[in-house]
Structures are given as C-alpha cells and as structure tokens.
Amino acid sequence: MSSPKLTLYGYWRSSASWRVRIALNLKGIDYDYRPVNLIKDGGEQYKDEYKALNPIQLLPTLVLEDGKTALTESLAIIEYLDEVYPENRLLPAYAPSRRSHAPFPRINVLGSV
Predict the structure, then answer these.
(1) With the C-alpha atoms ordered 25, 27, 109, 6, is the resulting torsion angle positive or negative?
(2) Contact 31, 5 (CB under 8 A)
(3) pLDDT tens track for 16-72
C-alpha cells in the first residue's frame, strides 16, 4: 500500500495552478493531480463534488496527506510547502516582511473535506 500523497486540483490554463505545479516539481514532492475543467458543462468548479472540497470554488486547491485539509491560493500554498518541506527553498528563509507575522497568514484552510 502506498503512502498518502498531496492532491492538487487545478486547471491546465490557470497560471495559479501552474505556479503550484512548478513549486511541487522543483521541490521534488510527489503528488496526485486532479484536473478541474473551468469550461466544461459550465465549469466543474461549480459542481457539488468540488464545492464540498472548496466552497470558494476557485483553483488551485491542495489537499494535504490527511485527505481532510484543503489549502487554497497559490502563494499561500507555496509558503506552506516551503515551511513543511524546507529543502529546495523557493522563498527567502528570512525576510523581515515575512517574519513580522505568524506563519501561513494567507492560507485558507477549508477544514474537513
């Protein structure tokens, strides 16, 4: 049985989704990718299945290994990845503007999926 992975929900033409995919690949993090088509049938992000995952109905969404916690907004996801997976840092390890607040201020945790 394989260990749980991160799951990224995104759209191939979304620059925000690309940003997170690039970050995951640069950090060498194994993840599953689930496409969400923003055009098909009026937008799959509006379907009940995705709305249960992300009530804001925006992309990207990263579901953590626990399968319950969902993070949104690409820069917040990248900041989370840098904190939890510090190898191959993508953001400065120390910047006064970053450290003047608690970690992860922009992360939208959507609770249980």
Answers:
(1) positive
(2) yes
(3) 999 999 999 999 999 999 999 999 988 989 999 999 999 999 999 999 999 999 999
Q: Which residue is listed with tokens 């579901």?
A: 63
Bridge partners (DSSP) of residue 9 are: 34, 61
Tokens of 54: 């992300």
The whole-angstrom separation of Cα 51 and Cα 24 is: 24
User: 109: part of which helix (H) or strand (E)?
Assistant: strand 108-109
The angle subtended at Cα 4 by Cα 18 and Cα 1, nearest 5°, is 130
Q: Is the model's pTM score more than 0.70?
A: yes
Which residues is 61 bridged to in the sheet? 9, 72
Tokens found for residue 78 = 């990248």
**What whole-number distance in Å separates Cα of residue 112 and Cα of residue 70?**
8
- Rounded distance, CA 31 to CA 51, Å? 21
> What is the tens place of the pLDDT at every residue in 2-13?
667 999 999 999
